[in-house]
Design brief:
Layout (H helix, E strand, L loop, with lengths): L2 E8 L1 H5 L3 H10 L3 E8 L3 H7 L9 H8 L4 E9 L1 H9 L12 H5 L8 E3 L3 H11 L8
Antiparallel strand pairs: 1-3, 1-4, 2-3
Bound molecules: adenosine-3',5'-cyclic-monophosphate.
The site of adenosine-3',5'-cyclic-monophosphate has 8 residues, from loops.
Length: 140
């Protein structure tokens, strides 16, 4: 498997509790390199566009409200099999189903305030990275 990039968000529940370093330590110790990172406050339009695939879901409005409720840290993570590796490190979307040692098991507050987002495929990673980073902001 080749070196891949994936897109990651440390969500408002994580920044509010000062967990940026603790979560980044999980990525780095498990083999992902943070090749781009910035702290931003998402606009409603940005959050709606980012989660447009979920627009018809009952939780969409709350999700957009939550993602714009505080700062987030957007990141590009790089490594061998990065998309799948990051999903392993994050754990299941619902923290109640997440394995021990995963970010969501240790830190998530609920299925909505689940501390991190990670791309679900290399194709979506490329799309998501382009929504937040210019090419010259990613330093591998
Ligand atoms: P994320 O990986 O960012 O992708 C969509 C997000 O919607 C998900 O993590 C959760 O934070 C949020 N969400 C809220 N409710 C649900 C739900 N019932 N099922 C799936 N995702 C949900």
């Amino acid at each position: 498997m080749a070196i891949q990039r994936t897109f990651s968000i440390l969500k408002p529940d994580a920044t509010r509790r000062n967990l940026t370093g603790a979560i980044n330590a999980k990525f780095e110790t498990k083999g992902l390199r943070i090749v781009a990172q910035k702290r931003v406050r998402m606009s409603q339009a940005q959050a709606e566009a980012f989660y447009s695939v979920h627009a018809a879901r009952p939780f969409f409005k709350d999700l957009v409200g939550f993602m714009t409720s505080g700062p987030v840290v957007v990141q590009v993570l790089e490594g061998e099999n990065a998309v799948a590796l990051n999903r392993e490190i994050m754990g299941a979307t619902n923290p109640a189903n997440a394995d021990a040692g995963t970010i969501r098991k240790e830190f998530a507050e609920s299925i909505e305030a689940n501390s991190v987002h990670g791309s679900d495929s290399p194709e979506n990673a490329a799309i998501e990275i382009a929504q937040f980073f210019a090419g010259n902001e990613i330093v591998g």
